[in-house]
């Protein structure tokens, strides 16, 4: 009886090893992240733990694929120093109201979010391609909510982007402030904010508090708090 039990255990272990070897890379938290990995918990797990050199390599690949256009900027010093930051010019076919500074993780996460979620969701809900993202900026050397004794904001390290609205190929312009209250656009905006959880550490919108009534705050801290 004992021998049969050992055989069963050996078979199960062997099956487990074979299944692990044939597990798709996007389901395996221990394989390197690829730009083609679909959104989900494992992809977010990998994004949160990217070593700087791997992030830089993936961001360069994203530039080559036309998912994003960035250029390196010089490191800065002072109260809110920046290291290895980039200036984001666009997300391929999706333009920006202006360029913005971003840490490598913010730039890479944003490129994947726009390509894999923001563009498809816009086409699905609104029936028109997304062509531009309007924003309030990213880098700002300040504490959270500008409070004197609070910790530094994610904006102080260029780890957050505040998106204020979207423009479609049809010519329609939708602000977060007004669109969140309109029956036609609210489901789309809610879907966009919910989808950000797969890429950012936090996504805060109008229902979080009054300070976010007019924008989506997409930041790198945390592990998928989106509301």
Structure characterization notes:
With 227 residues, the protein is an alpha+beta fold. Helix content is 34%, strand content 19%. The protein contains six helices and ten strands. It has helices at residues 2-21, 41-48, 52-64, 104-126, 176-179, 186-195, and strands spanning 69-72, 86-90, 95-96, 100-102, 130-137, 160-168, 173-175, 202-204, 216-219, 225-226. Strands 3, 5, 6, 7, 8, 9 and 10 form a seven-stranded mixed β-sheet that branches. A three-stranded antiparallel β-sheet has the order 1-2-4. The model is unreliable at 8-20 (pLDDT under 50).
**What is the chain-wise order of helices and strands?**
HHHEEEEHEEEHHEEE
Strand content: 15-25%
Oligomeric state of the chains in view? single chain
Radius of gyration: 20 Å
Given helix and strand content, the structural type is: alpha+beta
Largest sheet: 7 strands, mixed
Helix content: 25-40%
Q: State the low-pLDDT regions, or none.
A: 8-20
Counting DSSP H or I runs of 4 or more residues, the number of helices is: 6
Mean pLDDT: 89
Q: Give the number of DSSP strands.
A: 10
Ends: how far apart? 55 Å
Shape: globular
List the keywords.
3-stranded antiparallel beta sheet; 10 strands; 7-stranded mixed beta sheet; alpha+beta; 227 residues; globular; single chain
């Amino acid at each position: 009886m004992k021998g049969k039990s050992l055989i069963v255990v050996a078979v199960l272990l062997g099956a487990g090893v074979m299944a692990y070897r044939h597990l798709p890379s996007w389901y395996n938290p221990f394989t390197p992240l690829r730009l083609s990995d679909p959104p989900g918990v494992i992809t977010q797990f990998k994004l949160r733990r990217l070593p700087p050199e791997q992030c830089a390599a993936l961001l360069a690949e994203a530039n080559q694929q036309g998912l994003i256009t960035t250029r390196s900027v010089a490191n800065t010093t002072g109260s809110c120093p920046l290291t290895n930051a980039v200036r984001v010019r666009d997300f391929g076919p999706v333009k920006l109201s202006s360029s913005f500074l971003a840490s490598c993780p913010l730039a890479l996460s944003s490129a994947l979010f726009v390509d894999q979620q923001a563009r498809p969701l816009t086409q699905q809900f609104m029936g028109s391609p997304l062509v531009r993202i309007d924003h309030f900026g990213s880098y700002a050397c300040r504490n959270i909510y500008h409070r004197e004794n609070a910790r530094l904001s994610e904006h102080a390290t260029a780890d957050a982007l505040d998106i204020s609205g979207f423009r479609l190929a049809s010519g329609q312009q939708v602000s977060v402030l007004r669109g969140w209250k309109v029956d036609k656009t609210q489901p789309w905006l809610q879907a966009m904010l919910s989808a950000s959880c797969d890429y950012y550490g936090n996504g805060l919108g109008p229902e979080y508090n009054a300070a976010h009534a007019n924008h989506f705050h997409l930041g790198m801290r945390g592990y998928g708090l989106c509301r």
